[in-house]
Amino acid sequence: MITFARTDTSLVARWWWTVDRVTLLLILLLILAGIVLTMSASPAVANRIGAPTYHFVFRQAIFVIPAVIAMVGLSLLTPEQVRSVGAMGFGLFFVLLALVPIAGTEIKGARQWIGAGPIALQPSEFIRPFFCIVVAWALADARIRRNLMGYALTVVALLGVIGLIVMQPDFGMTMLVAGTWAVQVFVAGLPWLLVAIVLGGAVAGLAGGYLMLDHVASRIDRFLDPSTGDSYQITTSLSAIQNGGLIGRGPGEGLVKAVLPDAHTDFIFSVTAEEFGVLACLLMISAFAGIIIRGYMRMMQERDLFVVLAVSGLLGSFGLQAFINMGVAVHLMPTTGMTLPLISYGGSSLVATACGLGMTLALTRRRYVEGSGR
């Protein structure tokens, strides 16, 4: 067990006494749950593609190491350092995001990755937490200086990011980035005129996606009326959840992973429900809710507007992603291809989520809330 004396003034000791250790524990438990559920859901997928049985499990376990290092390392930063890292990270991954249509790797009809094999990165995953920091910085500056330039900069950043993501195409990620931005500008107190413009833009974007992107129109149509197309994935997901009951069929005894190609990513919540039951799902949801609620509770004691806006965005992005993934599994939303943060298989998703949570832990450390300045 890690222990430090209260009088210890080392960097690690001060971090230990000021970081939200309950949130840190919940994050680590979700990462561990992700390994267990990947071990349960992925062997059938690996066997279908001719890979070793635990191919995805080993890969996910390897990515846990840089994810935890990144999370803890970023949680050591001050708000000023978080701003600097956020700006640099946004610039780096915006460039990589712009390179995806040119030099990206195409998988299942979408060009979303840079590189190949074990070194492939999904820039759209990584840019989200840094986008939150840049938007928070610009909005805080706009409020303090009482000008619209900061608002305009956030709109430019938003349009640039979602424009590149739409080209991949990835409509689910586009809506997630736009939703995160909406959370931040709402917290910042957006003028009513701009609220109307934002809402109009959201409606126009949704209508445009429906009219111009066939796969988006198909998913929305199947969500509204399953008889209009192939609803096999959702039907199978709902059946698995029902079959799981309260305590599940037992580890490894589920059937959904053998018939759904994305059981270890998009529909890992269904695997959880079938093999471990509704109780396990409720525990998982409670862990997600605990992270978000504790973060917002600490944020509400904060006087630094940048910290308030950054935490709102980071936790908003984390919560929206989890809600979208689980909502798809229970047919509350159209299918989006969104992973369940910290749980689903995917190195980019795991490391990027850990980066966002690391910055959240840094910004909600008790020493900043109490204003000690150390």
UniProtKB/TrEMBL annotation:
One of its GO terms (biological process) is cell division. It comes from the Bacteria. Keywords: Cell cycle, Cell division, Cell shape, Glycosyltransferase, Membrane, Peptidoglycan synthesis, Transferase, Transmembrane, Transmembrane helix. InterPro entries: FtsW/RodA. It is found in: Membrane. The chain crosses the membrane at residues 24-45, 57-78, 84-105, 126-142, 148-167, 179-212, 276-293, 305-330, 342-364. It is a multi-pass membrane protein. It catalyses: [GlcNAc-(1->4)-Mur2Ac(oyl-L-Ala-gamma-D-Glu-L-Lys-D-Ala-D-Ala)](n)-di-trans,octa-cis-undecaprenyl diphosphate + beta-D-GlcNAc-(1->4)-Mur2Ac(oyl-L-Ala-gamma-D-Glu-L-Lys-D-Ala-D-Ala)-di-trans,octa-cis-undecaprenyl diphosphate = [GlcNAc-(1->4)-Mur2Ac(oyl-L-Ala-gamma-D-Glu-L-Lys-D-Ala-D-Ala)](n+1)-di-trans,octa-cis-undecaprenyl diphosphate + di-trans,octa-cis-undecaprenyl diphosphate + H(+). It is an enzyme of class 2 (transferase). Its EC number is 2.4.99.28. It holds the Pfam family FTSW_RODA_SPOVE. Signal peptide: none annotated. Belongs to the SEDS family. FtsW subfamily. This is Probable peptidoglycan glycosyltransferase FtsW. The lineage of its organism: Bacteria, Pseudomonadati, Pseudomonadota, Alphaproteobacteria, Geminicoccales.
